[in-house]
Amino acid sequence: MFMLRTLLLEVFSYAARRGLGYRDFFLALAAARGGPVYADVRLVSMLRDLAQLAESAPAAWRIPKNAVPVDGLGLAETYSVYVELSAAGVPPFVDVNINPRGDTLGFKQRLGVHTMAEASKKLRTATLYRSIDKLIHGLTPMPPEELASVLERELGERLRRIAEEVKRRGVPIAADHAYDVVCEGGLCWLCHGAKCPLSKLALVLG
Q1: According to a count of CB atoms within 10 Å of the terminal CB, is the N or C end of the chain lower?
Q2: Rounded to an integer, what distance in angstroms lies between the CA atom of residue 127 and that of residue 48?
Q3: Residue 36: which pLDDT band, with cuts at 50, 70 and 90?
Q4: Beta pairing partners, 95
């Protein structure tokens, strides 16, 4: 877990120092998962290493008791919130949980609840973000540049709201799982589950 968390922090801090936005981070992620070549070879290499570590990582959970659950928060989305908090002068804390199932059920089982609404109550927070996961399931395969544009357009404002909530309430966010990117024949799509390594990363940010 230490290696995974250290590498994740290195990925985020490196991309932030390079001034990369959501779109570029996602395209680098797609390149690391078999998509078209992306110019920043170092970032792509680190993201590839991150996926390898995630694939073999055992289950590990440290869910803060006051965390706001976010369904399906991926690496690119977490990075976007990380950048927003950094720009506001709020030092972001990043932690990694490993959900071997790569799905919401693994998160609910860990908390001993049946629904995400119950998870929100158990964590003593009134907010629950589910729109990211719904979008993931609604997307069809498309060229990575188009997929990045769709995600940025649909999620940009929601991610800013999440960052604002972290700043305003001083509480962390906790993902139930992330998603992975699959690329083949010039098209990319998103997946999550036990066979999608990066989706096992249930990230905490605050």
Answers
A1: N
A2: 33
A3: very high
A4: 204
pTM of the complete model? 0.95
Q: Which of 158, 180, 137 is nearest to 47 (CA)?
A: 180
Q: Are 153 and 42 in contact (CB under 8 A)?
A: no
Give the number of other Cβ atoms within 10 Å of residue 168's Cβ. Answer: 8
> What one-character-per-residue DSSP string does 104-166 give?
HHHHHHHHT-SSHHHHHHHTT-S--B-HHHHHHHH---B-HHHHHHHHHHHHHHHHHHHHHHH
Q: How many domains is the chain partitioned into structurally?
A: 1
Residue 131 has pLDDT above 90, yes or no: no
- At residue 98, the 3 state secondary structure works out as strand
| Residue whose tokens read 């973000």 | 129
Q: What is the pLDDT of residues 51-76, one digit of tens each?
A: 999 999 999 999 999 999 999 999 99
177 in Cβ contact with 101 (< 8 Å): yes
Helix (H), strand (E) at residue 22:
helix 22-32
Which residue range is the domain that position 20 belongs to? 2-205
